[in-house]
Amino acid sequence: MEAAVLVIAALLPLVLQDYLTIYATRVLILCLFALSFDLVWGYAGIMSFGQAVFFGSAGYGVALITRDLGVTSMLIVLPAGLLIGLTFALLLGGFLLLGRHQSSVIFVSLGTLTGSYAFDRLARGWYYLGGQNGIPSIPPMSLGSYDLDEGPVFYYFALGILVLVYLLCRFLVGSQFGLALAGLRENEQRIAFFGYRVQRLKAIIFSVAGAIAGLAGSLYAFHEGFVWPNMLGVVMSTQVVLYVLFGGAGTLIGAVIGTVVIEAVSFWLSNSYQDIWPIILGVLLLLVILFRPAGLISLIVSERERVGGFGRPPKA
Amino acid sequence: MANLFVALFEIMSFGAIVVLVVLGLGIIASMMGIFNFAQGEFVLLGAYITYVVHNAGAPVWIGMAVAPFAVGALGFVLERLVVRRFYAAPIVAMLGTYALGLIIREIVRGLIGGLYISVPEPVGGSVNLGAMHFSSWRLVIILITGLVMVASYLLLSRTAFGLRIRASLENPALARASGISTNAIYGATFAFGAALAGLAGALIVPVFSLFADLGLRFLIQGFVAVMVGGVGSFAGPVAGAGVIGTLSAALPWVIPPVIADVLVFVIAIVFIKFRPQGLVSGKGV
């Protein structure tokens, strides 16, 4: 399954026209973003309605680094984006998840949602960050004297990073740590009785996911060439929830497939049915939640994938 | 002095609007344990129905009278078809109602386009006290908010129906064993909450004008208000709404609006973090 998706993804730029390759690159970056949300919600059961905070703030961060410091080297900006995502996730996650009181699921989801809304408002109102218009015309990323422009090369670069992060996530969720996370999702109290520090586990995975979202955000900023407040806001945060729920939370490949399917259909419909597409999306989402809570992926992969197996790689 | 009174009036009328919007949200959250993400869109629908009725040539107030019943009926149907399946899982309920809200919002957006449509106030003009002018419509909103609050309180605390609602909340199994159809009660409660949202939308549309994201604007504010006030009681969300509404109307007079807006949320989240039970702890009415 995963191998088949990878082969298709690797061959895609050979058959697509250039503008479609650029669109596909964006989808790959969004897949990376979806993976980060899948880790927190699908595996650890933390509802983060504010994943875009890390995505967007990293985007803004690297945009500022290139604008004010003139640095475009990918060896600096990508780690910087990762660090920004990690830092914000540590701060927000640490505040929401740690502490004497056990945080309720509702509190965490509303807290992240509110955080996303607040960042959005701040970015819109702050002149230094460009206000409503965001920061336009970010120069391309560079490696030495080579500029990474959008196109097939960027596509393969994004694909490489996605595969790398995907493998990392797969290792993570296959480890004992990942198994504890899945246990957290299924029955938090029981995991606590086993002696795990539940809150700390949650904060760790939240931060790791924040770092991944930050990496995705900085890639996105350079690929699009500009950042704007929507990247931080509730719209983007809920968008990623849609991707993962649609594809299937709790399986890594589900997040990727959900993103690709939604973005592909959206692209296909956007010419002729721009107005009704969000309505269709809402209806589809509702149907998936009602009748296929495990997402599209559950049509192909068995429920056991969600539980994972310690020690050996899961089948399919 | 006169300025101070005008400012106080502005703050109070905005506080009343937030209370009105939050009331339905709070009742559904407290009595059913569901955070209804579609509540903002119920507000939007109330506003839209008022606009449609007005557009058809009828006086505005007829639209305002129709809106709560129409939205309440829709809420009843939606509860039957969709929301009912979510009671066991609060997070799934959030996502499901979010999807419902998305559908409603985008349909309304398709109907009105990206426009801001103004709807006239049924009671125009202003009340003058010396040199001070108070908008009559805002006075009416404050008044109706007070009435609705008292009426909802009485309904929940003094009637047999309210008793059944509270019984279904506190111990559903025992309520069913006592011959109360909890399903019917949940349906009615949800419809009631939706109707309140519809009324809120109808009343505030002359103030904010009609646009597709009208509900979204209040949704996060409403949730934060419910959490600050405390889930589980009637008084909690109302108190929370009063605090949040007052703060978000008062702070922009003192500090820059953007910072004020964000600051209110930050204060609220920090408050909830250290006092998860909210302003008013305890269950019941």
The share of residues in helices of chain A is over 70%
Q: Could you give the count of β-strands of chain B?
A: 2
Order of helices and strands of chain B: HHHHEEHHHHHHH
Assembly of the depicted chains? heterodimer
Strand order within the widest beta sheet of chain A: 1-2
User: Helical region count of chain B?
Assistant: 11
Radius of gyration of chain A, whole Å: 19 Å
Strand residues, percent of chain A: under 5%
What is the H/E order of chain A?
A: HHHHHEEHHHHHHHH
Strand-pairing-aware structural class of chain A:
mainly alpha
What fraction strand of chain B?
under 5%
How would you describe this protein?
The complex is a heterodimer of chains A (316) and B (285). The longest helix of chain A is centred in the last third of the chain and has 27 residues, at 198-224. Residues 310-316 of chain A have low confidence and may be disordered. Helix content of chain A is 71%, strand content 2%. In chain A, a hairpin with a 2-residue loop joins strand 1 and strand 2 (146-148). Chain A has helices at residues 2-15, 18-43, 51-69, 74-97, 105-125, 152-174, 176-186, 188-193, 198-224, 234-247, 252-270, 277-291, 304-307; strands at residues 141-143, 146-148. Chain A starts with a helix and ends in a 9-residue tail after the last helix. In chain A, helix 2 (18-43) runs parallel beside helix 6 (152-174). Chain A has 316 residues and is an all-alpha fold. The radius of gyration of chain A is 19 Å and the shape is globular. In chain A, strands 1-2 form a two-stranded antiparallel sheet. Chain A contains 13 helices and two strands. By secondary structure, chain B is mostly helical. Helix content of chain B is 75%, strand content 3%. Chain B is built from eleven helices and two strands. In chain B, strands 1-2 form a two-stranded antiparallel ribbon. In chain B, strand 1 (126-129) and strand 2 form a beta hairpin. In chain B, helix 1 runs antiparallel to helix 8, helix 3 (60-81) runs antiparallel to helix 8 and helix 9 (214-229) crosses helix 10 (235-254). The A-B interface holds A 47, 95-96, 99, 101, 103-107, 109-111, 113-115, 117-118, 121-122, 124-126, 234, 238, 241, 245, 275-276, 278-279, 281-283, 285-286, 289-290, 293 and B 35, 82, 85, 90-92, 94-96, 98-100, 102-103, 106-107, 109-110, 216, 220, 223-224, 227, 231, 256-259, 261-262, 265-266, 268-269, 272-274, 276.
